[in-house]
Write a structure and sequence with these properties.
Elements (H helix, E strand, L loop, with lengths): L1 H14 L8 E3 L14 E2 L10 E3 L4 E4 L2 E4 L2 E4 L3 E4 L4 E4 L5 E5 L9 E5 L3 E4 L3 E3 L13 E6 L2 E11 L12 E7 L3 E11 L3 E2 L12 E2 L1 E7 L8 E3 L3 E3 L2 E7 L3 E8 L3 E3 L4 E3 L5 E3 L6 E7 L2 H19 L1
Parallel strand pairs: 1-3, 3-6, 4-7, 5-8, 6-9, 7-10, 8-11, 9-12, 10-13, 11-14, 12-14, 13-15, 14-16, 15-19, 16-20, 16-21, 19-22, 20-23, 21-24, 22-25
Antiparallel strand pairs: 1-2, 17-18, 23-27, 26-27
């Protein structure tokens, strides 16, 4: 009897790790694109809290109700749309990776578009992360767009940070906040990578420089944008892009409880006449100021006068 027990124990140790990297693969075999349709997964069955999930080339999924998993991976042109009424919970220390694919100057992106609902990630949310040593090209593209609902990330949101084993590779990430209808965005940290992919990286590449991006799209309402709340440190590189319109005033786009590090190569792109303040010290905020329309007119007249003087 003792021998039987020992043998079973050994078998248990060997079998479970060999079961595969992912417990559930999206195969879209159901009659719709809903996460909670069992036939959309291989093997059939809606993922549970202990199941790791994977989306691959051209997979299209929608989340309308409750969903859960452990590890979460999206590859090569896969998309997930999250709607009002949805509630996703990730468990454990498995990370969420939006890995996309390779190609120049553009290539497949993995994209989550959150229109509403609640998304809770228990570890890091990594946008553009996978890379391959020595390939000398973009290997990963991940984009998260949020226009409604609540996003919570227990650890950090990393945008375009290459996989640690190959830190010299360039990955692309984009995190885009659309308007002021989002309820809340919070995370333990935020890193936007500072890498630039251009002809210096690959002499055979002649396209525009490629960089990761944090973008805020103001929607013109009285409350035109939702801020991101970071409890820890923030590192900003790449592109910080502000677009859209808003009434005159000062708006908070990001708060941070730790330290703020700004890259010397940070490219802050704002509408004409708008200004940005990054705050000072820790436990501060990044704000954008929209001037009164009359101020913009004066600025425009000043520019015209300066041109006339130069022509004379």
């Amino acid at each position: 009897m003792k021998k039987t027990v020992i043998l079973l124990a050994v078998v248990a140790v060997v079998v479970f790790p060999v079961a595969g990297a992912f417990a559930k693969y999206w195969d879209g075999g159901g009659s719709d694109n809903y996460w909670n349709t069992a036939e959309n997964w291989d093997p059939d069955g809606v993922p549970t809290s202990s199941d790791s999930v994977k989306f691959s080339t051209d997979d299209v999924a929608e989340l309308h109700g409750f969903a859960e998993s452990s590890d979460f991976r999206m590859y090569s042109n896969s998309t997930l749309d999250v709607y009002t009424g949805a509630s996703y919970q990730q468990y454990g220390s498995g990370e969420a990776h939006l890995c996309g694919g390779s190609g120049l100057p553009d290539g497949p992106w993995s994209v989550i578009t959150q229109h509403g609902g609640t998304m809770n990630f228990s570890w890091h949310l990594r946008l553009g992360y996978h890379s391959v040593s020595g390939t000398n090209t973009i290997q990963s593209r991940g984009r998260y767009i949020i226009s409604g609902g609540t996003l919570t990330v227990s650890r950090a949101i990393t945008v375009g940070v290459a996989y640690g084993r190959y830190p010299d590779d360039t990955c692309l990430g984009e995190f885009i906040v659309v308007g002021g209808d989002v309820d809340q965005i919070s995370a333990g940290g935020l890193v936007v990578d500072d890498s630039t992919y251009d002809s210096n990286d690959n002499p055979g590449y002649s396209g525009p420089p490629l960089r990761s991006k944090l973008e805020f799209q103001f929607d013109g309402d009285d409350d035109p944008i939702q801020q991101i709340d970071i409890s820890g440190n923030v590192t900003l590189g790449g592109i910080l892009k502000i677009t859209g319109s808003a009434p005159a005033g000062t708006y908070t786009i990001l708060t941070y409880g730790g330290d703020l590090t700004l890259s010397d190569n940070l490219d802050a792109q704002l509408p004409a006449g708008w200004s940005i303040d990054y705050g000072t010290g820790s436990n501060s905020a990044i704000t954008v100021t929209v001037p009164e329309p009359a101020t913009l007119v004066l600025l425009g007249l000043g520019g015209c006068l300066a041109l006339l003087r130069r022509k004379k």
